[in-house]
Design a protein that fits this description.
Elements lengths: L2 H8 L1 H13 L6 H11 L6 H12 L7 H23 L3 E2 L2 E2 L1 H5 L1 H19 L5 H23 L8 H27 L3 H28 L2 H4 L5 H4 L5 H9 L2 H11 L2 H6 L1 H10 L2 H18 L10 H13 L3
Antiparallel strand pairs: 1-2
Length: about 325
């Protein structure tokens, strides 16, 4: 049993309810809308955001069921961004299958993403707590701003490490920070514990995305479920490349810059780019950064020391940096 399977088993009943609600809520009378949502929701995925919310609520000793619709709302929000991102990035593969826009076109896919955003807000309303709506609104704002910032800086070889951290903090980490804090909100915990959960989720999200970016260099398409080297081919600079550009010898830096600046060369010489980045320590540096964020996530849990289920969050942080897909 994998780590994710073991963690999911710890909240098995709640996850089953989340799965049921995910599909029943998008049972639209509009066939194409129903088809797109069923396709993307049924194509796999780790359900990491709902899982984090449910485990956070468990750590806080919550006994109710209000966390179920909120877990669905977060998964809808995440899934909507995937639909939109694949259109923006012209990505043909998602989770090892054809991306929705390949099957149904850009217009229908974008509108399906909007539909999932709306459903997320509808489910969030079940909490009858304005703080929940604000969390989702803040996440949506962060996602939009970070995506536009990333588009504006696409292909910019002067993108700094801090710029990169800004992007992934607002895209990936904001969702995981929201997941953890919503688990605390439904539990009615104190502000100090909410802050700790948020800090945990943000650091976890940073580690998760850095590893995701490393897997773009090191994994294989069948295992990863995405086109390997996609970030490089699209001109999106991630931490391994950023570090390599800053640390490699002048000759290799010039060669790397020349390859990265030309889309045709990027695609044709992908193996050479990957070799330079690895040789200059880019992937190792990125993995070390991911480990550092994972440790920060675990350190944030100090306020929950002695709680029965805190170990689940610690195990999740360890999984994030060890995963291979």
């Amino acid at each position: 049993m994998s780590v994710i399977e073991r963690l999911t088993a710890a909240v098995e009943q709640e996850m089953e309810q989340v799965e049921q609600l995910l599909f029943s809520t998008v049972a639209s009378e509009v066939e194409v809308l129903r088809s797109i949502c069923t396709h993307i929701l049924g194509s796999g995925g780790k359900r990491l955001r709902p899982l984090l919310l449910l485990i956070s609520a468990r750590v806080c000793d919550y006994q109710g069921r209000a966390q179920i619709p909120l877990a669905c709302a977060l998964e809808y929000l995440h899934t909507a961004t995937l639909l939109h991102d694949d259109v923006i990035d012209h990505a043909d593969i998602r989770r090892g299958a054809s991306a929705a826009h390949v099957l149904w076109g850009n217009q229908a896919t974008i509108l399906a993403g909007d539909y999932l955003f709306a459903k997320a807000l509808w489910l969030a309303g079940s909490a009858d707590d304005l703080r929940v709506i604000r969390v989702l609104a803040d996440i949506s704002t962060c996602l939009s701003e970070a995506e536009l910032f990333q588009i504006a800086r696409c292909g910019d070889l002067h993108l700094s490490e801090q710029d990169y951290f800004h992007i992934i903090r607002n895209k990936t980490a904001s969702l995981l920070g929201g997941a953890a804090v919503l688990g605390g909100m439904v539990s009615g915990v104190c502000p100090e514990e909410l802050d700790a959960l948020h800090a945990y989720g943000i650091s976890l999200g940073m580690a998760f995305q850095i590893v995701d970016d490393v897997l773009d260099y090191r994994s294989n398409q069948q295992e990863f479920g995405k086109t390997i080297g996609k970030d490089i081919c699209e001109g999106s600079l991630t931490l391994p490349v950023i570090h390599a550009l800053q640390s490699c010898p002048a000759g290799e830096r010039e060669r790397l810059c020349a390859l990265l600046q030309d889309r045709t060369l990027r695609s044709r010489h992908l193996d050479e780019i990957l070799a330079i980045v690895d040789r200059c320590g880019g992937t190792r540096y990125a993995l070390d950064a991911a480990e550092r964020f994972a440790r920060e996530a675990v350190d944030a849990l100090g306020v929950f020391s002695g709680r029965q289920h805190t170990g689940l969050l610690t195990e999740l942080a360890k999984y994030v940096v060890r995963r291979r897909s």
